[in-house]
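It is worth pausing here to work through a concrete case rather than discussing structure prediction in the abstract. The textbook approach is simple: state the sequence, then state the predicted structure, then interpret. We follow exactly that order.
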Amino acid sequence: YGIDTAFQTTVGTSGLNAAVLLEYDALPGIGHACGHNIIAAAGLGAGLALAGVANDAGGRLTLMGTPAEEGGGGKVEMARAGAFKGVDAAMMIHPADRDLARMNAIAIQQAVVRYYGQAAHAAVSPHLGRNALDAAVLGYINVAALRQHIRPTERVHGIFTKAGEKPNIVPREAEMDWYVRSDTIETLQPLKMRVAACLEAGAKAADCRVEMMWDTHAYADIVDSIPLLDAYAANSTSLGRALTSAYMPGTGGGSTDMGNVSYLTPSIHPMLAVAPRGVSLHSPQFADYTKSKEADKAVLDGAKIMAMTVIDLWTRAELQSAVRESFGNGDVYIEKFIEN
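Step two, the predicted structure:
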């Protein structure tokens, strides 16, 4: 699929094709603070358990290694290359601070914004300069004001990554990184336009030029398959992990490229507790818990629950029908949403 560290293997010769997804990328500086080591191990465990029974159960299993979730959009690239064609359902687990059926996962697109001005001596001839940093600061202030008037399901955050060389040189170039999030991939588009207008206004006010480079790997929101999730929840409860839901319509949340998969095939993305309540993902504390006894238990439980759920999907015709009939989002996944 054009990604050196991606992989795929399929067992079984006929029947419903269920995909179990593995993530394994880490975070710079703090390692597996998002617990992708647990995701990979649990997915592999489910695959090993299912491989020996797929033919007898009348199903197919696709084990899929999906790198670059933490930026890079591995699943987006794989989807474009056709990885999910012929997949009837997809699932993965994710570690957290509690056992969750669903999570708020909203759409996101990243942008690198560069402002170009004219360098000059800041004391001798400032009138000859055009301050790119001023343009960036004004753009930032505009977006900060915009935040008062966006919906509760939307988030915009940015940082300065380049702001000049020395105080006595009018900055010729400034650069920012922005994340723009909205509750769905469709509502993300108008929010991007509003943010872009704010950033362009900063350039105009400072008489500078601006370039906006939107990442082509936008992440969609997750659309859970409720019948499939119900089957997973029943199996999770049978192993002593009763699920609650962090899904709260009308609020913001994180983002994942599993959302893109959920627009292509019925999907679930439940969470397993490995850390105490309140220990957040992407923190050094969470990284410590991803190599704990609790993490080892989550690997085993996650593998078992996914394997049980896949077997249910293979062997229960009514579940297959419910999953198929409840899925209506495939036509909504339009390529323009991840290109613009």
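Step three, interpretation. The longest strand covers residues 107-116. The radius of gyration is 23 Å.
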